[in-house]
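re the bet — no i am not wrong, look at it urself. input seq straight from the record:
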Amino acid sequence: MFRLSMLLSCIFMTNTAMEDKNIATNFVDSTDVTDFDQYAVTCYICVNVSDNLVCNQFAIDRPCKPGETFCHTLHIMDKKGTSILVNKKCTTEKECQRNKVGCVEIDAQTICVSCCDQNYCNVNVPTNSSTAVFDDKISKMRMLAKNLFREREKALTTTIKESNRGARSLNAVFSLRSLSIVFLLLGNV
């Protein structure tokens, strides 16, 4: 039983290291990033802790890295419901998806995973299918705000382009009228 817990714990830690490596290789120019992408959630972070109280008491308290917008919690319990292992971390949208949360029983142990995207939302550990949930309220609001911002920016750009075209046409009309007046004056001289 405990071997399974240790295996899952190793996978949990290794996955983070692999993601960090991938993030480094897929570096995006920071000038491309909008304010919406700068949002940093703060999660309780602990690895291989015996229970939730110890995790929260000694958790690392720092904002997640850019791109890590979810708090991920892995909780393993024995058949009596006593905590065996608690892991909490910051992670990306790729790892925290609706189909990757919930509880499963393996070898008289219950393994529960939950994901959320609000500051310190992983204060509690999931203990059953009702608490092992996927909560992406902030991500949805950020996406809506980002889309509204882009639409507004697009509308402003279009308006500016149209007003520039109108000004050029108006300048051309004034230039033609000025030329015709000059020709009229020259013709009369």
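see?? The mean pLDDT is 76. told u. also Residues 137-189 form one domain. so pay up
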